[in-house]
Design brief:
Layout lengths: L1 H10 L4 H9 L1 E6 L4 E3 L7 E7 L2 E6 L5 E7 L4 E2 L2 H6 L6 E4 L3 E7 H10 L1 H27 L2 H11 L3 H4 L2 H8 L3 H16 L1
Antiparallel strand pairs: 1-8, 2-7, 3-6, 3-8, 4-5, 4-7
């Protein structure tokens, strides 16, 4: 638990008492690969802190085609944020790509605690800011970078991504086909060899 306390304190200083209150509304879970922790059209009530493993967030069309919106790595907070705040059905699915360890936090209880606790409210704000910064960077990358550069940016973020996530999911995240991704990888390997 000390590691979790230290992690949260690296974002915002909170007291041990505040941390104890958080622990009361939090549940530790081990989730097997391939588990949907938030389903399409489910009204979510939890936020998650990923301790180990990889989770993807995706949107599925009526025809069944999937578009990966984001990948989450350890120390990431995740939620279907708009659905959670508005108490509406989620447009996204969150699925574990590997066995994962997570902390599940009751959102409404967290909001009650934030009302009376300025340090917890500040922690919440800083986490939301970080989430927003990540979304903004993703949007800028999609608009301004070509597929090859988007792949290189993703490799900077997740250096061993090719060993961790299937080519299909990476291609979907980049907005290209698996064949295009294969060509980009080959070109990059040739460039690295030079």
């Amino acid at each position: 638990m000390k590691r979790n306390f230290d992690f949260l304190n690296s974002i915002e200083n909170i007291s041990e008492e505040t941390f104890s209150e958080l622990v009361k509304i939090t549940e530790f879970k081990r989730i097997p690969a391939g588990t949907k922790i938030i389903n399409y059209e489910e009204v979510p009530s939890k936020i998650y802190l990923l301790v180990s493993g990889i989770i993807r967030c995706y949107l599925s069309t009526e025809s069944g085609k999937e578009f990966n919106k984001s990948f989450y790595l350890p120390s990431s907070f995740l939620a279907s944020l708009t659905a959670l705040i508005k108490k509406k059905p989620s447009l996204f699915v969150f699925e574990t790509l590997s066995d994962c360890k997570i902390y599940e936090i009751d959102y409404s209880e967290l909001m009650k605690l934030c009302k009376d606790n300025p340090s917890l409210k500040n922690l919440h704000i800083k986490i939301l800011e970080k989430v927003y910064f990540n979304y903004e960077k993703r949007l800028v990358d999609l608009i301004s970078l070509n597929a090859s550069d988007r792949y290189l940016e993703l490799k900077k973020l997740i250096p061993n991504i090719d060993d961790m996530i299937s080519q299909y999911h990476i291609a979907s995240y980049l907005g290209i086909t698996p064949v295009q991704l294969s060509r980009i990888r080959k070109k990059n390997k040739r460039n690295e060899a030079i």
